[in-house]
Amino acid sequence: MVQVTAAPDCGNAPKKQVLRDVTVALAERDTEKLLSAVADDVEWEIVGRRTVHGKSGFAAAVTAAAERQAETLRLDSILTHGSEGAVGSRMGFPGGGGMRCCDVYAFSGHGKTAKIKRITSFWIEA
């Protein structure tokens, strides 16, 4: 299990919690949890690496993208407004090394139960 560090939140922003949970699930390579949060026609672009479409492509990309199991995850910022959001984070790996991440999300709507329709990820080895 990944050790997660995050600033306290007001608890009144449901999409912030969704994005927090998705980021933790990605660090833990929890494909089942990730698939429950995305729309059937999800699009995920990992800038400079690949773009996938649909849940099956997304599931395969999660496995390929998360090459190493993260040991630590620091959530620096989670921002949401309307049907969009972004997460700035840092992952640390066992034995050293890490990754700085910025993931930008678009939801299928404004409601609390809206699924993630698009993710654009900017990942840099640190």
TrEMBL record:
Q: Which residues cross the membrane?
A: none
| InterPro entries per record | NTF2-like_dom_sf, SnoaL-like
- Residue ranges annotated for the SnoaL-like domain, each copy included: 25-112
Q: Per UniProt, what is one Pfam family of this protein?
A: SnoaL_2
What protein name does the entry list? Nuclear transport factor 2 family protein
Organism of this sequence: Nocardiopsis suaedae
